[in-house]
TrEMBL record:
SUPFAM superfamilies: F-box domain, Kelch motif
Regions crossing the membrane: none
CDD domains attached to this UniProt entry: F-box_AtAFR-like (cd22152)
Domain of life: Eukaryota
Domain F-box: from-to ranges: 18-68
Organism classification: Eukaryota, Viridiplantae, Streptophyta, Embryophyta, Tracheophyta
A Pfam family this chain is assigned to: Kelch_FKB95
UniProt name for this protein: F-box domain-containing protein
Length: 380
């Protein structure tokens, strides 16, 4: 009898509800989830309301930060002129445990193993906030909410945020911003008629705001991104052929011809897209050289607006571009957004760079009027 009842008693112990994962304290669940790649969060959020709540909480990000398990993901910003004046953000989601393929020359639909997912989602909770470090302090502008005058600051290591003593002169939504020599430059995100305070700069030493000169036509343009080079600030807009440049020493604006559509540094080599092909600059070489092995990709990049985004993605080059598609049967045009990941190999004594497209996929379909604005790498 004992030998017959013993297995059933063991079975009852295994079915003890007190051993259920859902009975664990939230702190332990957070520690477990923080060790899992965010790629799995969309599926995990469907398991239970508890999981969904924990995944959407800020505590999970804090736990990942403390455990040093944060991963960098790509966020992409679009502007839908006919839909909303506010930008729309998406995050690049890669299906876990799936091999990604190069679909550039395939006629069938992409597999869906790589997608741009609207934010917010269980994968990424909120759009990025502009943040910059000045000395021992970190400043932030929440760009993607209702128009705000606020600039926030925290002393590193405290985790306590406060508003700067003086607010911005103009309430802004989705401004572009950058930092240079301890000063924070904020532009746009307000009425195009705001000629006096369309751009302003915050001096972190004196804790005061000062208006920038009127940039002219730039006020009515769609702002894409901002870059700092030397003592000048370069603004990219829907003026595809030129930059609007602000000289912080002279306090003046000028328009200069654009040399490259996009560029990024990967392993001490600068890669650029000229609008027709990819080139590279090395520290040991004079002038530019063409990247070999990308003729098919270059042909696809030329099939859209010509605007592409490039990012350093774990030591490889991630490219995002648009490609126009005409459907003869439905008699309408659309735009496919593509992503590709590229690895590089130096040959012939570092005199040549050869590229290998590890995967390329159509990740989103948008209306023809949609504009690809910018990208951000964010830790989650």
């Amino acid at each position: 009898m004992n030998s017959q009842t013993e297995p059933s008693e063991k079975k009852k112990k295994n079915l003890n509800p007190s051993l259920s994962l859902f009975s664990l304290p939230n702190d332990i669940l957070l520690n477990c989830m923080a060790r899992i790649s965010p790629s799995y969060y969309p599926k995990l959020s469907l398991v239970s309301k508890t999981f969904a709540s924990l995944i959407s909480s800020s505590k999970l990000k804090d736990t990942r930060f403390l455990q040093k398990t944060c991963e960098k993901i790509l966020l992409v910003c679009f502007h839908y002129p006919t839909k909303s004046p506010s930008p729309s953000w998406f995050s690049l989601w890669l299906k876990p445990n799936q091999a990604l393929t190069n679909d550039l020359e395939k006629k069938e639909e992409s597999t869906g193993n790589a997608l741009l997912v609207p934010i917010p989602s269980s994968y990424c909770r909120r759009p990025p906030t502009f943040m910059c470090k000045v000395g021992s302090e970190c400043y932030a502008i929440n760009r993607y909410c209702n128009p705000s005058f606020d600039l926030s600051v925290t002393t590193l290591g405290t985790g306590i945020w406060r508003k700067v003593p003086k607010m911005m002169t103009v309430a802004r939504e989705d401004p572009i911003a950058c930092v240079l020599d301890g000063k924070i430059y904020v532009m746009g995100g307000c009425s195009e008629d705001e000629s006096k305070n369309w751009g302003e700069v915050y001096d972190t030493n004196t804790q005061t705001w000062e208006s920038l000169p009127d940039p002219g036509f730039l006020r009515v343009s769609t702002l894409r991104k901002v870059e700092v080079m030397g003592k000048k600030i370069y603004i990219s807009s829907n003026n595809w052929d030129a930059y609007d440049v602000y000289d912080t020493i002279e306090g003046t604006w000028e328009v200069v011809a654009r040399m490259f559509e996009s560029s990024v540094v990967v392993d001490y080599v600068r890669y650029c897209y000229t609008g027709t092909n990819f080139i590279w600059y090395g520290m040991k070489h004079n002038g530019s050289r063409r990247v070999n092995g990308l003729s098919v990709l270059e042909r696809h990049c030329r099939a859209g607006s010509g605007h592409i985004e490039m990012a350093n993605y774990g030591g490889k080059l991630l490219i995002i571009w648009d490609e126009f598609v005409y459907n003869a049967r439905l008699r309408h045009e659309k735009t496919n957004i593509w992503c590709a990941l590229i690895a590089f190999e130096k040959r012939n004594g570092d005199e040549e760079v050869w590229a290998n497209v590890e995967w390329a996929s159509s990740v989103l379909t948008v209306p023809l009027s949609c504009i690809l604005l910018r990208h951000v790498m964010k830790a989650v």
